[in-house]
# Entry
Amino acid sequence: MNRRTLLATATLGFGLAFGGAAAAQGMDKVKACFVYVGPIGDGGWTFQHHQGALDLQKEYGDKVEIAFQENVPEGADAERVLTQMALSGCNIIFTTSFGYMDPTNAVAGKFPDVKFEHATGYKREHPNVSTYNARFYEGRAVQGHIAGKMTKSNKIGYIASFPIPEVVMGINAFYLHAKKVNPAVELTVVWAFTWFDPAKEADAAKAMIEQGVDVIASHTDSTAPLAEAAKTPGVIGFGQASDMAAYAPSPRVSSIIDNWAPYYIKRVGALLDGSYAQADAWEGIAGGEVEIGAITDAVPAEIKAEAEALRDSIAAGTYHPFTGPINKQDGSVWLAEGATAPDGDLLGMGFYVEGITGEIPN
Amino acid sequence: MIGGISPTLLIASLMVASVPIILAAIGELVAERAGVLNLGVEGMMIMGAVCGFIAAVESGSPLVGFVGGAAGGAVLAFIFALLTQVMLANQVATGLALTLFGLGLSSMLGQRYVGIKPPATFDLPLGPLTQIPVLGPILFSHDWVVYFSLALVAATWWTLRATRAGLILRAVGESHDAAHALGYKVRRIRMLALLFGGAMAGMGGAYISLVRVPQWTDGITAGAGWIALAIVVFASWRPWRALIGAYLFGGITVLQLNLQAAGARIPVEYLSMSPYLITILVLVIISSGKGRATSAPANLGQNFHASR
# Structure
């Protein structure tokens, strides 16, 4: 071995050593993968996650590679997709629907080196599973305020997807704030049992409109409820997950916009610089993950001002949408005067608050 | 009003809700009667939905939209016809592939059309008829496609049952060898039946994107094509039974949402599964009994080659 090859070998050795050290702390390039429950063109939930993914790509350029799979059914199929992603070299996998909770944890156990991030869930069974969510109920409170003030028939409706805490929380926040400004208000809840089925969502909206409901909030993914509301003058609704500005100024009078980009950029950034750690993130209006879309002129200026004041007080932390006294549906006390809801109660919420009729399906 | 639900409005909305499924089911029924199993209904529907939407938006005319939708579905059916009738590919595999292809292609074509409103399809101006109590809202205040779908069922029933063309079509489906021996062009007849099936599925899709949910979103048909396929089988290949099936399914879907909205004290789980359960149950009961009930065309799904 002459001096030149010796030097080359030594350099290579150093390189390997440093390279190895760097890998333990951070990464040169991250492959970030996303599992979507609907199509990226749904104009709502999945669309917003995909926007977050695209912003992530823009932020880090060549250092990040993005892959995604649309229309993945919740349940066993998801496990197959996740396994395939993990095998295909994904470093971090974002699973963007509640129903991926168990598949995510199951697959995470088999791939300890891959980071898993599950949206809107609460199970972190392995050190490589993190969960993230947004406090959508803060936005629902603002919507409820507008709904209570705007309804003429005193009947407001809510198209719900599945009976999970996330959805129940939204219904409760919506109702409480409508009731607060309009004690005569009645809430109708229709369970669609789907996240994405435009025709069914439209049918649900139609059924409610035929029964006199004139403000419709939805917790499904497409813009169909707004398209249906647009057919009947005087009926208003809200953009859900995405701004849905195509339906402004009416029926869409405001919206809840999910902005996942800051979280995705933060987490992948942490993976790149080596500061990544398991997390349970739950940001709201204050953190920028929940945005309230512009309130249109279809809403009178004073109501708009009140709604914006409510939004700002939530953002400032001076007001919590679940502040006692609040009773459960059966009349038992949930929150005493002045008490605010602990996060644990919210994340496991399986009851309606007092005044809502009907039962939550199991 | 019964329990807060108005039966008149309910029947009127179920007629609208069932149109896409009827159109697609009748198209598939004709294709299957000719002996071809096309599992690509969902793909043809969504192609119809996107092509119809694009045609309507670009031309400003909903009528052009429906023609465009029918053309979109027919083009996809033509691909299927080429593969299965000329190249003799397996029909089940080709049909499934067609659905995947249709979903992907429609998503690509529709990218620029998300968030646009199509021109409105208005109810037919039936004047004083719409003022008749009860019957007016139920029968006389719909758009033309609703009436078209009913006429289509009647026409298909009549053609299959009482005309020479219908007899030939059924002969091809029952025994392509015999039909061939008699000098009928098996392949040509099947291709025409497939094109008809594609056009109807496409129109059904266009009805979803232009009338029921007037917008374009990826995956807008959300499984309606599969329902149509199932209804054809459970209706044992009879047009009127397919209509009953589609109305039952559409009706119970609308009814269960109305019951929920009216606050009925029935657990939501049962309500949600009721459209599927009741439709299957009723059609199975109608189709059972009386010996000749399970009348699948004898050569359904089998490829034909003249050299045999």
